[in-house]
From TrEMBL:
Gene Ontology terms for molecular function: ATP binding; ATP hydrolysis activity
Source organism, top-level taxon: Bacteria
The entry's keywords: ATP-binding, Nucleotide-binding, Transport
Protein name listed in UniProt: ABC transporter ATP-binding protein
Every ABC transporter domain range: 5-230
Length: 296
């Protein structure tokens, strides 16, 4: 199995604060992966390290086995759309396509022009006068015109309205289906991600909390409702991710390693959003307690 992106004990520090620390993950090639986490979790830092814009302070990050900061030869394999979709606002879309051809050895100008024509993007209007959704589509078309093996997207739809988000994601899906590009898409919008992504990475408190194929992760988690839990073992439960209690009852979101057959527990299926929010809440609790120097 080819690994498109690999991080090994990766760390990046700003002053005394670690934006990423001991971050390890392996993203198989061909996946469309969601990168999920709260603000400040290190998502943008991870993506900037992966495209060679930042140098790691610890560990390593590799794209198809090569470190992008130390080996610029791997950069043509990477497409990147930053969070604010930076473009030369005085340039037209047609001029940006032409510029891309001068800056990239492997450049598919026809692909970019065809995509922008299909989307109705005016070729002669400065991109600064386009809508936010149109600018995002221009940035995506330029990234795809590199014919990258890995496409990294840093919350490209965060500021778009629902219709523009849907059009952007549909355009993305159509493009990567044709090219078999590996995609890592950072976003807060879980409903959008659930429709398009088949792999999940949850990043919180500067570390990866969870990673794997979406179907496998959802299938291995359950919600249990039953008598107040004292922390003892439950048959079929590998670990408790999140727990809430009343005087007599506990509600647990758990990782399972087999069927939960104890009749005292009511077992319920969960969705992707339930799993993600449980891991984010757990990581946030650990961070708050560590900041105050008290046990979680």
């Amino acid at each position: 199995m080819d690994i498109a992106l690999e991080a090994d004990q990766l760390g990046k520090r700003y002053g005394r604060t670690w934006a990423l620390r001991d971050c390890s993950l392996r993203l198989p090639a061909g996946r469309i992966a969601a990168l999920v986490g709260p603000n400040g979790a290190g998502k943008s830092t991870l993506l900037h390290l992966a495209v060679g814009l930042l140098r790691p302070d610890a560990g390593a990050v590799r794209i198809f086995g090569e470190a992008p900061y130390d080996n610029p030869a791997v950069l043509p394999e990477i497409g990147f759309v930053a969070q604010d979709t930076p473009l030369y606002r005085d340039f037209t879309a047609a001029e940006l396509v032409q510029l891309g051809g001068r800056l990239n050895k492997r450049w598919d100008a026809a692909l970019a022009r065809n995509r922008l024509a299909q989307l109705g993007i005016p070729p002669k209007l400065p991109v600064g006068k386009l809508s936010g959704g149109q600018r995002a589509q221009v940035a995506l078309a330029l990234a795809l015109a590199k014919r990258p093996r890995v496409l990294l997207l840093d919350e490209p739809v965060a500021s778009l309205d629902p219709l523009a988000r849907r059009e952007f994601l549909q355009s993305l899906m159509g493009s990567v289906a044709e090219s078999e590009t590996t995609v890592l898409l950072s976003s807060h919008l879980l409903a959008d991600l659930e429709r398009v992504c088949d792999y999940l990475i949850v990043l919180n408190a500067a570390q990866v909390q969870l990673a794997g194929a979406v179907d496998d992760l959802v299938a291995s988690h359950r919600q249990l409702v039953g008598p107040r839990h004292d922390g003892g073992p439950i048959g079929g439960v590998n670990g408790v991710v999140r727990a809430s209690h009343t005087d007599r009852q506990s509600t647990l979101l758990v990782r399972t390693d087999g069927p939960v057959t104890d009749p005292a527990w009511t077992v319920r299926d969960v969705g992707l959003e339930d799993v993600v929010l449980a891991y984010l809440a757990d990581g946030a609790t650990q961070t708050r307690h560590s900041e105050w120097g008290v046990p979680a």
